[in-house]
User: Fold these one by one.
Assistant:
Number 1:
Amino acid sequence: MSSQTSGSEPQPSAVSPQVQRVALYAVASGLTPLIPVPFLDEYALRRVREGMVRSILRERSFSPPDRTVTVLAGLHPREGSRLQQFASKTALFSLRLTWRKAYRRLATAIWVKDCVDMASVSLHHGYLLQHALERGDLDATTLATEDVPRRVHAAIDAACKELDARPVNQALRRLFAGSRLLLSELTKALESWNGAPRTPLEGEEQEVASLAERLATAMWEERGYFQSLESLYSRHFQAR
């Protein structure tokens, strides 16, 4: 990420296209938990993450095998097994019938946390994947097999686990908590637990783009954090 500049607050135009791209996919990842169907939300998340990896690699004219893309996208299930996720959603349904207000508060808190968690993983991994490419850790030759991509992904995972993500996650939480799109989708999910396919809202693309722009600006403001993340990645990659 670019070094800090002196003077006034950074303008959105100063944010690099690479950061903006990752921010867009992070927002898209953060919205996947709103699909009120077990397993389908996980499928949507995988599609978004693989799309992010392909977009980042395509920017550098790389077209790796599908398996390499899958390795770099990674498997990042939420806390607990999928069965536990399903059971928790079923339990929330029972709670809705008994304590409606308490259910709404609890369900909203859980879903917002899920949105933040999914967005945060994509944000960190997408950012570090671009950093790995800038360092030359991946090229056309190494992307043709899975060995180096696995090493890169392991270093990314290790760096993310070592650094306290609260500064970024707090920014994500503020972002999603004030999102009209998120609140609308939450309301629909809480009112009707029928697993029906969601219908895109009018102006949804503009809302997602706006969220991504604000997230990219927030990333710029936390550039010291991301510089620390880069250093951790480099150390873990060299140690493998």
Number 2:
Amino acid sequence: MATSAAPDIDLAIEETQRTSFTERIAGMKLSTVGKIKFPEYSGNSDPKAHIRAFRLAISRTHLKDNEKEAGYCRFFAENLAGSALEWFAGLEENSIDNFTQLVSAFLKQYSVFIETRTTEADLWNLKQAPFEHLRAYINKFREIKAKIANLNDGVALAALKNGVWFSSKFKEEMSVRALVSLDNALHRASHFAAYEEDVANLKEQFLASKNAASKKTSTTKEAPTKGQHSYAIDNSTKNRSSTFDLNKHCDFHKRKGHSTEECRAALREKREKGGRRNSQEDELP
């Protein structure tokens, strides 16, 4: 048996018509405020920061005194989105009669997102990592510094000196030279950071050129092509005879340096052959 979806639709319409505002807030007629851009809240950021931004925006509406409570509440609710809008819709009906009540409920709901106040202790706890660039550390230091109201210069300088890596050139600078103020110290730090980056870039260029030169040298020393013979030629004349002559050739040795007529080995072999022949003739009957 099919059931009608009409009752669910009626219930949904009824729920959208409910409001947590009292009649005093919901029924107040407001003056035209013009095009004001209000901050939106979705339920995942610092609620205190949102309230501050909202108060700045609504101050431009110039609502009449008798309109302010209603205007603040309604404009605030109109700029909730996502889970924050669902939270507001779930508030008890007729439970909000002024902006203070709405803000209290809002802060209670999203207190988990309230950021803790930044103090000088946060500066003191900030430390430069062993391989962290000085500029990266100084940028973090500046970000924390900007969040601290009425920062004491002396405490901040001590925190800076304490946080810089022990072997840093900038730490040496702070130890040797008296720095007038925190702004002066941060200005000096920027110069040291720039120097650190220049040195790193030059080192990188040097290593790149050195590696390129090494590769070029190694490619010139190529191995002989397969099948190609290498010959070691002894140009020394230490063991050569004084009669050595490249213009003469020996048929017996098959090389240059002396003639066949001058070759002692050829003459010796000729004599031996002649002796053997004479010996054979003497043995004949």
